[in-house]
Design a protein that fits this description.
Elements (H helix, E strand, L loop, with lengths): L1 H17 L16 H14 L6 E5 H8 L3 H8 L9 E2 L5 H8 L9 H5 L1 H7 L3 E3 L7 E3 L12 H4 E2 L12 E2 L4 H19 L3 H30 L4
Antiparallel strand pairs: 1-2, 3-4, 5-6
Length: 232
């Protein structure tokens, strides 16, 4: 067992190098209480992401309820392909064909924010740059040689990468840099919500649990003193 642990510890630096260089991540600054931001992020996801990336563990009606969207409005604004309101948020892209087109099937995004972190998603969507050597003409500083096209390029515009690895300011997009950052933040906010829809409820419940345990600690201490007073 000792030999195994020593071999594992010796291999860790190599595994870290194999994972690639660490890229500083920008803070997304999400706010899960901001329903308007979540709605805008949901709309961006439906219009730009759903064609390739599913949310196969999230239902439309749960999303409508949590985001304060009227069901009739939700069906008209967010459900384009005739699904039932109780269906999961999926698409019809065949996985095998997608793997041929992109090199691998686009991942489901339900738990992506929990896997990667919201900061990773926020930085990734703002780190595409022109690369004529890639199949879709773009690359990404956060995810090198990514197989995904820059689907938000029409909004952000095109960035270039200088010899020092620094991104230039994007140009040619329909949004300003500040507007694009806001759009990506809203989308990241929505994906964080999807990863754990009851996150706010869990946190609020946690305060009550900690309060209960603190009160229980006081009574337990007083009870302990009562039992042990005759001993001392």
């Amino acid at each position: 067992m000792k030999k195994f642990i020593l071999v594992l510890l010796a291999a860790l630096p190599g595994l870290a190098l194999a994972a690639g260089p660490s890229i500083p991540l920008d803070k997304a600054g999400n706010d899960l209480t901001d329903k308007e931001s979540l709605k805008r992020g949901f709309e961006t996801y439906v219009n730009y992401c759903l064609g390739c990336h599913q949310l196969q563990y999230q239902r439309y009606n749960r999303t409508f309820a949590d985001l304060g969207i009227d069901e009739k409005e939700g069906i008209a604004k967010y459900m384009y392909t005739g699904e039932k309101v109780g269906d999961h948020i999926t698409n019809t892209m065949p996985a095998k064909d997608a793997a041929k087109w992109f090199g691998s099937a686009p991942p489901d995004l339900t738990l992506e924010a929990r896997l990667r972190s919201p900061d990773w998603i926020y930085t990734y969507l703002r780190s595409f740059y022109a690369d004529p050597n890639r199949p879709f003409g773009v690359n990404n500083t956060v995810f090198k040689d990514v197989g995904m096209p820059h689907v938000l390029q029409g909004l952000q515009g095109v960035s270039t990468l200088d010899e020092n690895g620094n991104l230039s300011e994007a140009s040619g997009g329909s949004l300003t840099a500040e507007e694009y950052d806001t759009l990506v933040r809203d989308l990241t906010n929505f994906l964080e919500y999807v990863g754990e829809p009851n996150k706010l409820e869990r946190k609020n419940l946690g305060y009550w649990v900690i309060g209960f345990l603190f009160i229980l600690l006081i009574f337990s201490y007083l009870l302990k003193r009562e039992y042990w007073k005759d001993v001392h």
